[in-house]
Amino acid sequence: MSEWVSELAGRLIVGRKRDGRCVYDAQAKQELIEACGRPGISMAKLARDCGINANLLNTWVRKHERKTVVLAAPAAVEPEGAAPAFV
Prior knowledge:
The chain is mostly helical. The protein has one domain (3-67). The chain has four helices and two strands. The protein has helices spanning 3-12, 26-36, 43-50, 54-72; strands spanning 13-16, 22-24. It has a two-stranded antiparallel sheet. Strand 1 and strand 2 form a beta hairpin. The relative contact order is 0.12.
């Protein structure tokens, strides 16, 4: 395990809730998501090295991708006075 992954793993989990679920640091979580986008990086190995489930990491990455697609999509603008397609 490389040095930056072990450092990231140490910062990722900051606590636990009463029901046993983990509380994650937002900055470390964002760094982990960005690391998954690098070429040659295995999501499953990265998750295992950080001590989290690969399915959880995959969910974080998909949510991040959806959020960036929604932010990047231009809003549809209708010209004024245009009639709707269906009446």
